Amino acid sequence: MIRQAASSLLIYTICCCRYYYYYSLLPRGALAFTTSSPLRTKNYHFPPSESSASVLDGSSSDTMTTDSTTSSTGITIPHLSPTTLANLVDYTISFSAANGLQVQQKSERSATSTTSSSYITAPISLLPQAYPHGQFQHGLALSTPFNLLVDRISRNGKFLQETLKGVRDVDEFTGMLLTLYEAIYLSDGHSEQHAKGADRLGILRSDYMLHCSQAAENEYSIKQVELNTIASSFAGLASSVAKLHSFLTRRLGEEGLQEFLDVNERAVMGDSSDDIVDDDGERGVPQSLAMIRLPAAMAVAYDRYCARFNIGSSNNNGENKSDAAVIKPVILFVVQPNETNTVDQRLLEFALWDNHEIPVVRMSLGEIHERVTLDEASGRLSIQNDDQGDNGGAVQQEVAVVYFRAGYAPTDYPSGYNTADGSGIEWLARERLERGSAAKCPNLGYHLAGTKKVQQELARRGAVEQFFEGDEGDVAAQIRTAFAGLYSLGADANEEDMEAVKDVLFNDAKGQYVLKPQREGGGYNYYGENLANKLKENCTITVDDDGNNDVSLSPDLSEFILMERLFPPQQRAILLRNGQVEGTGMSISELGCFGAIVSSGDGEVVHNEYAGFLLRTKFSGVDEGGVASGFATLSSLYLC
């Protein structure tokens, strides 16, 4: 028995060492989601150089299991044998290499060579997480209603202006977005008609956590964490994770894996665990449709643009209609310089070509400012290239669709906000793209509809209902089932909002809320003592004659919202980073449901459907949840 255990341990150790060199460089900023997690202990935001040994030595964690040792000598996981664990790691790393489940790592530039790229396994959960089938289906069903809601909000300038008027004064980034929106979509200028008439493409992702109220023990329902309307990422990698987990659970299910899955199922479902099945008639890991449906929606927008201008559509080359050599229109991916999540983006690019023969060009906002031109008469956007065509003219690539995977944060506009003197080149590029006739994903209206302040405003009584009147009242009610408690900290704060603030300040309820700014990507939220201190620093507290506390909010709080903290079920996870087991412990997860919508300039919805899912998992003691910001890992669901 001792010899067998030693042999299993040796197999695992060799497996870890074999891949350590290639996977030890994985950046922490490879994956990210912003959530409201239940336990606030320590923030496990490990630096890139930390290996599993330093993560698991007991100095970095309150919530990880204490029955584990360093990965160099093996790790003990309840209900999972060392041999099964070694097989899981080996299969996972091999599958990731074979199927592009990776992120890009830039190598250093040397004096004798150009910059090259290498790829390493993405941060992932080694196994899927148990998830209630009914709540998964609920999330899927909410996709199309939320798509419609975003589209209708984007066209209601008065609602956006009124909702964001307090934010724009204290948040320069949101203020700039709103100013551009007003100049382009709310003005009567002839030059803005191209943008107003352009199609709108939404690739949205609504993120949910299972939440159990104190009055309903072990009865979980999904509550919305946030609605992402720009750069909704990881559709490609998440689809690959689902395929990996489907393979692992079927291949190793009878070799010591099923007990681990069953224990997690009981942790989530309790005594209600039954034989509910998924859409394929089998319990287990569902497959995401993201790499089919997201490219399909983009192809709809692409073909409509080509039909509008009578040029070649997908699977059909266009004619040369100008003196310059014009090639097939493209979809322009707006990306960040030095992007490391290129594989996720490339998977979408490859699917666009394989399924629809649509070419993609990738450019940063700085490059767009230099090389993309706008024809003021027609609204056409063209990429100017140095190459010459057969007729000797410069090659131009017309842009049919603009797809933003950048532009969602102030750091994407490093040249600043001054566009009057021409120095704010990234904002000038964003404005030029917006004013063109190409479909935008998203346009400025969709982008603003995804702000935290709009999310909070929609939670007010009657706010959603104004966008779904008459026979559509049931749609509004369906959307409202997903709302958590959301409270304003601006000049529009009402009695209910102030009661939430007082709850934090005077009732020691800081653990029941999260303070959120108007930012995407994770790492910006306030929790616990940090939350309470932020409020105290920006509130004036007085006591009236009756001894009651009165609170006045500083205008600086207008850029924040206060959100009810969500308490999802905890279950065991094994997280893999740098190709090694980072650790094991109790975890929580967040479900993201993709939706795709295409609508015309005058509001006709021509395409609207659910478009896939992702799951992100983190240790339960981690407050933030972003994959791209390095707090979480990609995972998938095991339906039960």
Automatic annotation (TrEMBL):
Enzyme Commission (EC) number: 6.3.2.3
Residues reported in the UniProt entry to bind substrate: Q345, R616
Enzyme class name: ligase
Keywords annotated in UniProt: ATP-binding, Glutathione biosynthesis, Ligase, Magnesium, Metal-binding, Nucleotide-binding
Binding positions (ATP): 452, 516-525, 527, 590, 618, 624
Protein's UniProt keywords contain Ligase: yes
InterPro entries, per database record: Glutathione_synthase, Glutathione_synthase_a-hlx, Glutathione_synthase_C_euk, Glutathione_synthase_N_euk, GSH-S_sub-bd_sf, GSH_synth_subst-bd, PreATP-grasp_dom_sf
Cofactor note: Binds 1 Mg(2+) ion per subunit.
Catalytic activity: gamma-L-glutamyl-L-cysteine + glycine + ATP = glutathione + ADP + phosphate + H(+)
Region listing for Disordered, in residue ranges: 44-74
Any GO MF annotation of the entry: magnesium ion binding
Pathway field: Sulfur metabolism; glutathione biosynthesis; glutathione from L-cysteine and L-glutamate: step 2/2
Domain (Glutathione synthase substrate-binding) ranges: 330-449
Residues engaged in binding Mg(2+): E520
Coiled coil feature spans: none
Sequence similarity: Belongs to the eukaryotic GSH synthase family.
Protein name per the record: Glutathione synthetase
